[in-house]
Design a protein that fits this description.
By secondary structure, the chain is α/β, with parallel strands linked by helices. It has two domains: 4-171, Thiolase/Chalcone synthase (Peroxisomal Thiolase, Chain A, domain 1), CATH 3.40.47.10; 178-330, Thiolase/Chalcone synthase (Peroxisomal Thiolase, Chain A, domain 1), CATH 3.40.47.10. The protein has eleven helices and 13 strands. Strands 1-7-6-4-5 form a five-stranded mixed beta sheet, sandwiched between helices. It has a four-stranded mixed beta sheet with strand order 8-13-12-11, with helices on both faces. Strands 2-3 form a two-stranded antiparallel sheet. Strand 4 (76-80), helix 4 (91-99) and strand 5 form a beta-alpha-beta unit. Helix 3 (52-67) crosses helix 4 and helix 8 crosses helix 9. Bound molecules: acetyl coenzyme *A. Acetyl coenzyme *A is lined by residues 29, 33, 37-38, 112-113, 154-155, 158-159, 194, 221, 223-224, 226-227, 260-261, 264, 288, 290, 319-320.
């Protein structure tokens, strides 16, 4: 049986840097508060008029070059985001239009910070089934348009940044390389803990001036509960993946965690007794880019030489839903 392998990675981060001090000019916060609790120093914001699919397009171009794959070889597009261009149709359709490759199937994934891992699992299954050969998987977010830059929304506003990461996933006959295992979970009992309502489809009309006045267009989060469950589920699912792949934790070269909060990831590393250097972090520079964070971090870690061909890499995520998962790649 063929395995699926990441043939190349691409990243796009909008050029506008927004520091913690910049945010402190808009509402009551400080670099010290944000850095102490999250590790974040700055993030990137897309300019007015930039869509999620625009960021995804740039990351895709970078990934195609990196993979040495032609655009016309792509036979399926999967895009993970919680900040879609419009409510419907899916943002993958807009990305496809911008790429200029009509006809191939497009799929949107709505699994927030675990979206890239859900996409990887689906791409892997489609490739193993022999249905597709070159799948484009993108995680992209424009959070900056949907944050509440007042004291009321400051707990969430400081966390998120914009960006996109893309991977070209291909079939490989090499049994020693590629995705070895992937374990996905969700628990909808926690769906309201971190959510953006924006409208309520049970109401007629489903969006009102009142709902906007109440700030329902902004995300809401019970931060402590997210923290508490994340630090339990992430080590648990890493162990599950290791066990299933028959791999010892010591054999892992690097862990690429979703970049939600540096403190969460430090907690997870400590609870696994893993040296912190084995956990890759770039949240300091980009904040939480949700579905984009794993492909962005994976590419940066690879380019920094933190892993190379043959090394074992763990990907792990936790996010709204709650959803969580972990996978192991042999690069
Ligand atoms: N700046 C300054 N003060 C703030 C800010 C801010 N940005 N936000 C909240 N505060 C205040 C609060 O109002 C509160 O003040 P009070 O004591 O006078 O009431 C005080 O700081 C403490 O607030 P807490 O919410 O209790 O702060 P906590 O220590 O829990 O830290 C944080 C908040 C950083 C959000 C933390 O709970 C956390 O990191 N949780 C995980 C969140 C996360 O990672 N979410 C995303 C993951 S899922 C995904 O990626 C989609």
């Amino acid at each position: 049986m063929q395995r699926s392998r990441i043939l190349g990675l691409g990243v796009y981060l909008p050029p506008r840097r927004v520091t913690n001090d910049d945010l402190a000019k808009m509402f009551d916060t400080s670099d010290e508060w944000i850095n102490q609790r999250t590790g974040i120093r700055e993030r990137r914001y897309a300019e007015e008029g930039v869509f999620c699919s625009d960021l995804a397009l740039e990351a895709t171009k970078d990934a195609l070059k990196d993979a040495n794959v032609r655009l016309d070889e792509i036979d399926f597009i999967i895009l993970a985001t919680l900040s879609p261009d419009v409510h419907f149709p899916g943002t993958a359709c807009y990305l496809q239009k911008k790429l200029g490759i009509p006809g191939i199937p497009c799929l949107d994934i709505r699994q927030q910070c675990t979206g890239f891992l859900y996409g990887l699992q689906i791409a892997d299954a489609l490739i193993k089934a022999g249905m597709y050969k070159r799948i484009l998987l993108v995680g992209a977010e424009v959070h900056s348009s949907a944050l509440n830059f007042t004291n009321e929304g400051r707990d969430v506003a400081v966390l998120f940044g914009d960006g996109a990461g893309a991977a070209i996933i291909g079939a490989s006959d090499d049994q020693n390389r590629g995705l070895l295992t992937m374990h996905l979970h969700a628990d909808g009992n926690f769906a309201d803990i971190l959510m953006l309502e924006i409208f309520n489809i049970s109401k007629k009309p489903y969006i009102t001036h009142k709902s906007l006045d109440e700030g329902r267009q902004f995300p809401k989060m019970v931060g402590r509960e997210v923290f508490r469950v994340a630090v339990t589920r992430m080590p648990e699912v890493i162990q599950e993946a290791l066990q299933s792949a028959g791999v010892d934790l010591n054999e892992i070269k690097v862990v690429i965690p979703h970049q939600a909060n540096l403190r969460i990831n430090q907690f997870v590393a400590a609870s696994l007794n893993l040296p912190e250097e084995k956990f890759f972090h770039n949240i300091q520079r980009y904040g939480n880019t949700t579905a984009a964070s794993i492909p962005i971090a994976l590419k940066e870690a690879r380019d920094e030489g933190l892993f190379a061909e043959g090394d074992l890499v763990v990907l792990v995520a936790f996010g709204a839903g709650f959803t969580w998962g972990a996978g192991i790649l042999r690069w």
